Amino acid sequence: MKTLTLICLSLLSLSYTGNAQTTATDFTSNDCSGNSQTLFTQLDANKVVVLVWVMPCGSCVGPAKTAYNVVQSYATSNPGKVLYYLIDENNNCIGMNNWATTNSVSTNAIKFSNSAISQTPYGTSGMPKIVVTGGTNHKIYFNQNGQSAGNSTNIQNAINLAISESTVGINEKSNEKLKLNLFPDR
């Protein structure tokens, strides 16, 4: 039953990613607080990262805030597991921080202002762009642009799938180890 559920959830995630690539593109960049961040380091630590590109623009507020609120909803059930990266390829950090504060998406948001963190590898560009990626396989679970990117149910489903797959992977490895101890080769 667990396998069937994962297959169904995996097929569902394909509808979110469309024709874009299926794995994330790594980057290392200083965030607006001056801390160096490497995407694959977070993913390899079994975290889920929600990447949100804004210009910042007025029409980006709704979807960016929706994604932010979904990420915040995991703070109690999965503390530190789901990260929110707010990205602008063209603005400076002062403008980015002001936009985030004005639009109530600043607490626990990791903000970037760096053209090296490009949305281009994730298919069609457009603002806002929201990508959910997770796990040591760096898989993309959700990839949408524009106003439709702000669908809270789809973002939440993608995050749940990423968490589920990372948890199942850990459990399966633990069970395999246990099986080896209980049933040695002859």
Topology:
Layout lengths: L1 H16 L10 E3 L5 E3 H6 L3 E6 L7 H12 L9 E7 L4 H10 L6 E5 L15 E6 L4 E7 L6 H31 L4
Parallel strand pairs: 3-4, 4-5
Antiparallel strand pairs: 1-2, 3-6, 6-7
Helix pairs in contact: 1-5, 3-5
Briefly, what is this?
The protein is α/β, with parallel strands linked by helices and 186 residues long. The chain has helices at residues 2-17, 39-44, 61-72, 93-102, 152-182; strands at 28-30, 36-38, 48-53, 82-88, 109-113, 129-134, 139-145.
Explain what this protein looks like in three dimensions:
This protein is an alpha/beta fold and 186 residues long. The chain contains five helices and seven strands; from the N terminus they run αββαβαβαβββα. Strands 5-4-3-6-7 form a five-stranded mixed sheet. A two-stranded antiparallel ribbon has the order 1-2.
Ranges where pLDDT stays below 50 over 5 or more residues in a row are 1-19, 169-184
Taking the alpha carbons of the first and last residues, their distance comes to 31 Å
Q: Name the helix and strand elements from N-terminus to C-terminus, one letter apiece.
A: HEEHEHEHEEEH
Bin the helical content: 40-55%
Instruction: Indicate the mean pLDDT.
Output: 82
Query: How many individual β-strands?
Result: 7
Please summarize the sheet with the most strands.
5 strands, mixed
Oligomer: single chain
Rg over C-alpha atoms, rounded to the nearest angstrom:
17 Å
Tally the helices: 5
Order of strands, widest sheet? 5-4-3-6-7
Please identify the structural class as seen in this structure.
alpha/beta
User: Shape from CA axes?
Assistant: globular
